[in-house]
Amino acid sequence: MTMTLPLLVDTPGADVAFLIGRVLFGAVLAFTGLNHFLDLDAMSGYAEMKGIPAPRLSVAFSGGMLVFGGLGVALGVFPIIAAGALAVFLLVTTPMMHDFWAAPEDQQQQEMTQFLKNVALLGGALVLLVLGGADWAYSLGIGL
């Protein structure tokens, strides 16, 4: 069952704005995921320092979630699963990796900034998750 949202149909230029928004959102997250693989050793060390179990596997798995979710959102491929993967990633990793409340005082501001950035990204992923059941203009139409 698909739904069509009036905002995306009746507002001139909304389809193009939605496309640009989801490409920017998805591409940035996919690029972030790619960096998980390109800098696997350093990111695994950081994850280990944060107490993440199986740090190398966790970094690789989360990188895969970001690449899949980001490309899925950008291209409109399996949008519910893609946005859901991004939401799960952000929901789980944000408090684990950016625990500003437990960081040394000289790192609290940086960790809080990263935490709040991820919370905003989580909000965007949740919006896209809700919109995943709608017909997305300019998508590949796979999984809709």
TrEMBL record:
<dbReference type="InterPro" id="IPR032808">
    <property type="entry name" value="DoxX"/>
</dbReference>
<feature type="transmembrane region" description="Helical">
    <location>
        <begin position="59"/>
        <end position="92"/>
    </location>
</feature>
<feature type="transmembrane region" description="Helical">
    <location>
        <begin position="16"/>
        <end position="38"/>
    </location>
</feature>
<keyword id="KW-0472">Membrane</keyword>
<dbReference type="GO" id="GO:0005886">
    <property type="term" value="C:plasma membrane"/>
</dbReference>
<keyword id="KW-0812">Transmembrane</keyword>
<keyword id="KW-1003">Cell membrane</keyword>
<dbReference type="InterPro" id="IPR051907">
    <property type="entry name" value="DoxX-like_oxidoreductase"/>
</dbReference>
<feature type="transmembrane region" description="Helical">
    <location>
        <begin position="119"/>
        <end position="138"/>
    </location>
</feature>
<protein>
    <submittedName>
        <fullName>Putative membrane protein, DoxD family</fullName>
    </submittedName>
</protein>
<dbReference type="Pfam" id="PF07681">
    <property type="entry name" value="DoxX"/>
</dbReference>
<keyword id="KW-1133">Transmembrane helix</keyword>
